[in-house]
Amino acid sequence: MSTDVNIAYRISIVVMGTAVVFGAAGCGSGGGTPAHGTPASASSSAPASPPPARPMAKMPAGARVPLIHKGQLTVCPVYGNPFLSPSPDGSDSDKTGTGLDANLLTLIGQRMSAVPLVQPSVEPEDIYDYDALGHKACDVVAGAVTADPHVGDASIPYFKDSLALLTRASKSPASLASLAGKRVGAESGSSAARYLDNYNKQHGDAIHVDHNVGDEAAFTFMLQEKKVDAILTTRGIAMDLAYQADGRLRATSVNGPTWKIVFLVRHGNKGLLTQINEALADAVRNGQYARSYYAYFGSMPTWQPGQS
To answer: What is the architecture, at CATH level 2, of domain 3-25+62-159+260-297?
Structure first.
């Protein structure tokens, strides 16, 4: 693994209070027959580091951005790797958030001269049911989040996700079809598990499905100990784990449902939404997005914010 990029550039943001980890949520489920899989960008050998990036541009003088606290971008988290997670050290005195979102929120904050601060006391159910944005518990919702008009106004997408197979690098399958007779795991209750069940039902239950593989924290162990032959999960999780495994695991995309990850802001907060979108576009132009992406997936992005 390229430690100079991966470790040095995994920017952290300050987190207040006690955090709870939630699994990454996929969007949608369903049937259909996936065609042959394709590499999910993360592979057993990482490419060269991305080129140096330019600093973020500052927002125009006189631009107004309504924030709950001046100079602070308050974040309600929907925790889910590899987008936003609590600090791995678990300390209460100096918790930090990590993940692709942590990097991007820091870049957004640099544009606005605001420091991102995660408010983990707001649970995901409060975000969706209590209207945390509307009640000004936070400025932005971040993490494994898709567009939801009920919750808030969505930024331009900054990550295109899908389903992917995580396997040992020595036995990378071309598709789910190649796993007939094999053991394939998926996190219980996830969109990946629903998709796998539907696929298996349509194909004569040819795959031995295991829903007792835990969440992404256990995936690497389950594969390395050969308790399963493959795990169906999200592309983001699969690529992140494959990169962390230093060539021992491989991520292969499945041609199933796709969804896009966004930031959500309070309805009508056009000033903040504009600056988030401008910051994401600037990060693509100046190379900061590519460096953030590489830090978590070990490859250069094939899709970037602003693309269809």
So the answer is: 3-Layer(aba) Sandwich (3.40)
Which H or E run contains 159? strand 159-168
For residue 207, CA distances in Å to 186, 195, 197, 230 come to 12, 13, 9, 11
Domain definitions of the chain by residue range: 3-25+62-159+260-297, 161-259
Instruction: Compute the C-alpha angle 36/167/198, nearest 5°.
Output: 55
- What are the residues facing 98 on neighbouring strands? 85
Residue 269 identity: N
Number of other residues whose CB lies within 10 A of the CB of residue 248: 15
Rounded to whole angstroms, the Cα distance separating 77 from 81 reads: 12
Q: Which H or E run contains 191?
A: helix 191-202
pLDDT, tens digit (0-9, with 9 covering 90-100), for 2-11: 333 333 344 4
Average pLDDT, the chain: 84
Q: Which residues contact 214 (CB under 8 A, 6 or more apart)?
A: 187, 222
DSSP state of 55: P
The encoded tokens of residue 102 equal 């942590």
User: What is the CATH number assigned to the segment(s) 161-259?
Assistant: 3.40.190.10
Neighbour-count burial of 39, counting CB atoms closer than 10 A to its CB (0-12 exposed, 13-18 middle, 19+ buried)? middle
